[in-house]
Amino acid sequence: MPSSNSLPTHHLDPFHKERHRTSTNAIFGYNNLAVQYQIPGFELYSSEGMIPDYGPAKSTFYRVGIVLKGSIHMKLGLEHFDVGPLSLTFSIPGQVHSKSNASPDIFGYYILFSSTFLEGILPPLNLSTEFPFYDYSCSQLLQCNEQEINEIVSFIEKIDAELKSDSSGKVTAIKMYLYLLLLTAKRSYERQLPHNNLKPATHIVTQFHKLVSQHFLQYRQVSDYARMLHVTPNHLNRVVKNTTNRTASDAIQEMLVQEAKVLLQNTALSISEISYQLDFSEPAAFNHFFRKLTGGTPLSYRSMFATVV
């Protein structure tokens, strides 16, 4: 099976910004920030200039998004989220993600940071252990109260001020403010944890979707996920079908086609190379699979994008 580590991803570098932003005169955060003030492994933006439809894509960095006003639809793996005001969203390196349907009045912020950015200020952090929303098995959408959001926004404003300063210790200060922001989010998450009232069937489907998003390149059979969830394949198929009106196999195939779109959009690999990388027996099988799920060929999908990297 192909390794997810070999697949293309967006990095924090001067070239990735054009994929999620349009040209704008906004001066908040990294937007139009002079090179000498930029910090390796970290970026901060407001939603002004954000491309409203993006992905599917993958990245090598962590992300936290803050919506203060308006709404946007986000997809993380197989999970769909309608994100409204006072919400936080999180994504994990290597996770397939996309966004769409941003309302005209949307406003908020988002932060991108590398897996090593917080090193050096605290004992070594395992982010997925320290912050549950960076674990595939936990919720990556968080609805905060007004006090929590105000506290988070205050950290963002402090980070923005530090970015534009020449003060000593500014990198350490930004790291500390980011940690405190994530800690505030974690406390909000823990405050709401006892109120998780998912019905058993809904819980199984949610966990199934999270497992597929994490392991679909390695495991393609419903029985694989049934084993992880300690249920029978028939039971898993039944609850997924009853809850989503789609089969468990449909979910696995949807995740695979998202990965195919990432490869078609962001690499110069040939269709044949992509088909073998995704473990299809031959290019014709990949073409048939892609057409069945999308209504078009891989080549026609790729032609929608002007450039590849």
Question: Which sheet architecture does the biggest sheet show?
Answer: 5 strands, antiparallel
Q: Could you give me the name of the CATH homologous superfamily of the largest domain?
A: Regulatory protein AraC
Give unreliable regions as ranges: 1-10
CATH topology of the largest domain: Jelly Rolls
Q: How far is it from the N-terminal to the C-terminal residue, by CA?
A: 24 Å
Strand order of the largest sheet: 1-8-3-6-9
- The residue fraction in helices comes out at 40-55%
Q: What is the overall pLDDT average?
A: 89
Q: Give the number of domains.
A: 2
- Going by CATH, the architecture of the largest domain would be Sandwich
Order of helices and strands: EEEEEEEEHEHHHHHHHHH
Radius of gyration: 20 Å
**How many extended strands?**
9
**Principal-axis shape:** globular
Percent of residues in beta strands?
Answer: 5-15%
Structural class: alpha+beta
Name of the CATH class of the largest domain: Mainly Beta
Number of helical regions: 10
Organism: Chitinophaga silvisoli
Domain HTH araC/xylS-type: 206-304
InterPro entries: Homeodomain-like_sf (IPR009057), HTH-like (IPR037923), HTH_AraC (IPR018060)
GO molecular function: DNA-binding transcription factor activity; sequence-specific DNA binding
